[in-house]
Amino acid sequence: MKRLARLLATAGLLAAALPGLATPSASAASTPSYLRQTPAWHRCSPDRPAAYECATLKVPLDYQRPEGRTLNLAISRMKSENPAKRRGVLLLNPGGPGTSGLYRPIRTNAEMPEDVRDRYDLVGFDPRGVGESSPIGCGDLSEAEVGVGGAYRPETFASDVSWARGIADKCRAKSGDVIPYITTRNTARDMDVIRAALGERTVSYLGYSYGTYLGAVYSQMFPERTDRFVLDSGVDPGRVWRGMIQAWGTGAEPAFERWTRWAAERSDAYGLGATPEAVSATFWALVARADQDPIIHYGEKVTGDYIRADPLLFFDPHGASVVVKSIKASADKAPQPPGGTAPGGMAPGGTDPGASGKGADRKGPGAQSPLGGVRAAGPGVDAGGASEGPDAIPASNVTAVYWAVVCGDTDNWPRDPEQYARDAARDKVKHPLYGDFASNIKPCAFWQRPLEPATPMKTRADVLTVQNEWDPMTPLDTGQGLHQALKGSRMVLALGGEGHGVYLSNPTACANIPVNAYLSTGRLPAKDATCHNPPPTPDPKGAGAR
């Protein structure tokens, strides 16, 4: 019995599993010290609201050795201002892996309706290894090494392998003693430490993107601690993590088809073709032309691989039309709008201001890949936009944590480089927009083996999942996969919804209503629900229509 008690205590389950094991004083003594912490709250900084408080907890590096080395876990909160209505705490995660969530309470406090906000203390945290929570790094990485891999070509695959091996080697050399413990399961354990430190029996949760998987894992590891959970923009637990990257390739295809119809209906404005087939032919002709002879676009060489290197682009039909029209004008040597910056956010140097390199003169597979896109579901950017967090962290922090989690959560990554070559060649045919990028070799091929298996989704989880129909980073089928994996969950689908992140992303988003109701009452919808996002107001002339 004593041995069983120690095992349960290590898992954070002692109080629930063996409530009558000992007298209160003996029970407290047997509870691990990491579950008996009291946060020392203080104002986070003079330039932040006084109500925004910060503290630091200590968590075991390895929960199997709880008395050994520890990591800092930076947490923050904004308390409910209505104690009479307060239910508990709402833990927040904006996505990742690799994204800081320490400042998330400020944003949620500003966006959440007052009647919902009153019910919770809003609690943010930097996950282990991120930002102010004992940050890890991979040393000095080149521009190419902060991407997620490039297009597959047989003649360059050997350099792709070297790229992937080089990142794994650098991360291992710099942070190899910590990286094996930067996993979703350990972050879920850290969440339960936060719960205990706040003196709460249960915890509610709002997680976006990667945060949906983190929340799902917590619900399986600590089901008796799981209260009201909203999982927004879903990661399919059955696809972690290679399958989720590959979903960017499969998900881009229906978005591309929708775009061709949209652009064809506005052929007078964009000149890309009067039928969907003609628009598609225009696009692929540009790709083929740029592959043979890079197009000079606003002073930089644009290759065919670059043109198809952003899986997010075609989820915005208007933006895609502007960009493709602009590249076509450069190819045809037609006059471009003045200003020296490519339209649609495709400034020279990347698909967005945070992206890695785009041009033919920038070498390495990472330079061909839109890190800005990856960051929307991974390094550095949450579901709603820019990176949050302090400046005094390693420059490679988001990359280090991204690969630590993506490679370390599961052992389903192939170890044979040739398997990646075969898969990428296959997917370049099946999903020509981005399939080969997604299936090409990644650093996980050379990562250390995980210390524990991925979490099976076997326990009932009465949680609410939320999904946009046209989400570029967690496409609709991955959101549906999350819902199907969590028995007891309900799903709210925003038909016509665009973008990554649903709840509070737009004041008019139709999903706000059922999510607010669930967070306020705890009652899930009786069945899965769909709602219709209001269409954007079209420009009568067509050029600005959405």
Essential attributes:
546 residues; alpha/beta; ten-stranded mixed beta sheet; two-stranded antiparallel sheet; 19 helices; disordered N terminus; disordered C terminus
Characterize this entry briefly.
With 546 residues, the chain is α/β, with parallel strands linked by helices. It contains 19 helices and twelve strands.
Q: How would you describe this protein?
A:
36% of the residues lie in helices and 13% in strands. With 546 residues, the chain is an alpha/beta fold. Helix 7 packs across helix 8 and helix 9 crosses helix 11. The termini are far apart. The N terminus and C terminus are likely disordered.
Please give the radius of gyration in angstroms: 24 Å
Report the total helices. Answer: 19
Distance between the termini: 65 Å
SS-based structural class? Answer: alpha/beta
- Identify the strand order in the major beta sheet: 1-2-3-5-4-6-7-10-11-12
Mean pLDDT: 86
Note the beta-strand portion.
Answer: 5-15%
Low-pLDDT windows of residues: 1-26, 343-391, 537-546
Q: What does the main sheet amount to?
A: 10 strands, mixed
Determine the fraction of residues in helical runs and give it as a percent range.
Answer: 25-40%
Number of strands: 12
- Note the overall shape: globular
